[in-house]
Amino acid sequence: MKVAHNATYMGMWQFLAAANVIGSPIFSVYPDSGSEVYRIFFTRKLLPRNVTSSHTVTLLWSATIEHSNMMPKANWTANHVVPMMGLGDLVEIDSDQI
C-alpha cells in the first residue's frame, strides 16, 4: 500500500475503498480555504456498494499549522484528514471507567 507511507498522497479512491470496507457512507468535507476546484471535487458523499450501517462517517480535510503557515490562504492544501463528530456522537464516560 503505497499511500500508507510518509510523504505519499491519498484521495477519493481511497475514501471510496474505505466506505466499501466499513459498509458505511463517507462524507468528505474540504474547508473554505484554497482552490474552489478542490472544494468542489473533495466535498461529497461516497456510498459503498453494500450499505451495512446507517451511520455516515464524516471526514474533514485538514492541515498542520506548520503546513498552513508555509502558504498563502489562496493556495492552501490539506495534508491529512480528521474525523468530524456531531454533538449526538459524543458519549459520556464515567471517570471510573477510565
From TrEMBL:
Source organism superkingdom: Eukaryota
Name the record gives this protein: Uncharacterized protein
Source organism of this protein record: Elysia crispata (lettuce slug)
